[in-house]
Design a protein that fits this description.
Elements (H helix, E strand, L loop, with lengths): L4 E4 L8 E4 L7 H4 L2 E8 L7 E9 L1 H18 L14 H14 L8 E7 L9 H16 L6 E6 L8 H11 L9 E5 L5 H17 L6 H14 L15 E3 L1
Helix pairs in contact: 2-3, 3-7, 4-5, 6-7
Amino acid sequence: MNRRLFINRILGSTSIETKIHSSTRKNESTQYDHISFLAESGIVGVSDVTAIGIISLSPTKANQLSSYITQLRDDHSFRNRVSYKSNNRRKESFAIDLIGTFISHPGLAEVALKIHLIENTGTPEGYNLGAKLEARKLATGLLLSDLPGDTRVLMKAESYYGPSANYKAEMAEVISSPPDSTLDSFTATDVRDDEIIQLTDLLVGTVASEIRGGSKSPTKVAITQALKDALGVDSLSPQALSGNSKIQFL
């Protein structure tokens, strides 16, 4: 059974409602001005660098991008989820074409991935839970701060069973702050449930891994090189991508 844990937060309300939510985006064009897809790579306070990234686009563009991805899946006969962590060698050609589509397709020229990096400045033991949550909330809030009104945010869940209670409360706080925010909906979803969440996860993971020193996996090396080639850069560092329209660091 295909499941999605839906957490809907209406500003001014103190409750968070959990629902099973269909993966379809039917009628979203009339409900939201934008849909934003958020993914995270690394563990705050443990990884040298944690990256949180977001792709924000109109419902029309989201449906268009999803149709491109569906066509790529048909072309490659690839039905598995695609994420950076996976070492599935069969994903390589599909992931490379997926990256090429996101970077180069003229219909997606104005669609960008925005990333905020959290650097671990202390030891894992000294980076307490409160500091981790504050760093994560600050980064997420920065990415969400310039979204237009009536924006729905979908995030990769922490596990197959959805986010923890702490994560729900944390994100509800981010979404309701600042007080004049018009951001009114948040969904935490298993990464397998949404094509654009998977794309966001792939891109954020690839960039973060390169910044942390890169992977030795041949599949991941090939995907990383494909992203650099598509962007026309030798590195995925913030310095190398300064001024890039498709991947922007905040």
